Amino acid sequence: MPKLFSDPDALAEEIVRDVGTDLVVGLPLGLGKACHVVNALYARACADPDIKLTLLSALTLEKPRPKGLIEHRFIAPVIDRLLGGYPDLAYADALREGRLPPNIKVAEFFFLAGRWLHVPAAQQNYISANYTHAASYLLARGLNVVTQLVAKRVVDGVPRYSLSCNTDTTLDVLRERRAGRASFKLVAQVNSELPFMPGAGDLAADEFSAVLDSAATDFPLFAPPSEPISNTKFAIGLNAASLVRDGGTLQIGIGQIGDALAQGLILRHRDSGAFRSVMARLSPARPAVAQESGAFAAGLYGVSEMLTEAFIGLIEADILKRSVDGVVLHGAFFLGPKSFYRALREMPPDRIACIQMMPVSFTNELYGEEERKRRARVDARFINNAMMATLLGAAVSDGLDDGQVVSGVGGQYNFVAQAFALEGARSVLTLEATRHAGRGLKSNILWRYGHETIPRHLRDVFVTEYGVADLRGKSDADVIAGMLAIADSRFQDELMRVAKEAGKLPRDYEIPAAHRDNHPERIAAALKPARDAGLLPPFPFGCDFTEVEQRLIPALEILQGAQRSPRALAGLLWQGLIRKTDAADEACLARFGLDRPKTWPERGYRALVSAALAQSRNA
Fold this sequence. Notes:
- This protein is of the alpha/beta class.
- The protein is built from 23 helices and 22 strands.
- Strands 1, 2, 3, 4, 5, 6, 7, 8 and 9 form a nine-stranded mixed beta sheet that branches.
- α1 (8-19) crosses α2 (35-47) and α20 (547-562) crosses α22 (583-591).
């Protein structure tokens, strides 16, 4: 049985006595970090330079850091409400500020997107790894401690502990320990909000050497609020939803596009006619015979490294129902809003038994029980996000051309490889066609880029808001034509010119007229009937924002867009200065503390927000 602790400092002292002063500590990705244990080990190493502490991790979660008056006044109360009780990880601030002691090193194989750009210590110690290789890299570095947040259940007077949100790499390193190929101490911190998930991560107490279990160290889980789904992301999700076959297998990546995809599948299942109608407006040049648009009679089976709230929505909509050995969804880790954790905690036993948390070696690979996996993963659609893509079909998903890492490869390559290894499977990489950079607009479809995550020889399907490019097995010229067709029309001519100059596209090639109206205004118009009818809600799976905050979000998006143009910002300011506000506006302004402005800057911000509210109401 493990030693029980109520004081994290005492537990840290026990780890040093038990393991020694050279500590190589594995921290689970994302939600599963035992924050108090990690902070106690960090403090112990800071106090004693003879202790060498290496923290091996991924996806360190941090509270957002708002910038500017408006952003701060909007998001700070949300952070306090949703994340205020979450204990900050001490090493994260020290790493960002360049003040880690020389005896402490932090290395991660996946970053929270964009949070560690231009932080030299984080960038230099980043480990580029496929998710399925991470466990072996941890063991190769001499892993001797794993700390993990767990859920607790007492059965017949005996405690059991669930790895819950993070079976991913922990189950893989435990398998190596059981086989005698690894030796490490497994240390747990109990959390009362963490759902107790059945399956392979339901462990007996004797798997652990020590457990921190105290009301004083209990804390609310990290619960990022769902963000509203934009027209662009809904268009991408709907296009992707038209690729999913009934009776097939589904994997979804991280982000709002996954929510948009899931809502698109729900619309398709509940009202196929409405789905076909919105698709006809959205992608008029794409033949209906090339689209999947029917309801889900056989249903889908889910196998995804990340389990999201969207999957719960698909289960509740009776779409995720194709059972594999009694399971409709296999996952390796989860992260989401409070409603998601609550839904898992409150699921009846027969429903929660249909969701099994597994090691990442199961979800992301075919090796091991390969025949069983092949039989289960029929007509698989592996749908993941990219940042950029080249005209020749390479994907840029994790880094920049100067070597800076934005996030990480994670499981993307794993799922692309599965798509080529499984009969009837496809890899679907989604991306927005453009992005704002400073005050300008740039295409996310490029001729070339100095970094690639997925090389062009593994090109398969790309999806933007403007359509679907099926590239598998195509010639370079046909691939370029397909990518041009889903690029934003403001960049098509220049992209085509460069391809022709490189000799990769015939000189007489012209982009078909049907793909020459790839503009945001067309997308907005195509989605408007479904949006107005409530078929594409901005928060399809619930929302942690108040009603006033929900009214403010589109206004803030307008204000953010205006800040890219001095002329637009000045126009917005003038409109706000001359218009009268109503009671609804005043409630929104009060949320910012701008109902009674006291300074000239506050008066200016009041006018800007007021005008943006008016514009958002008319959008």
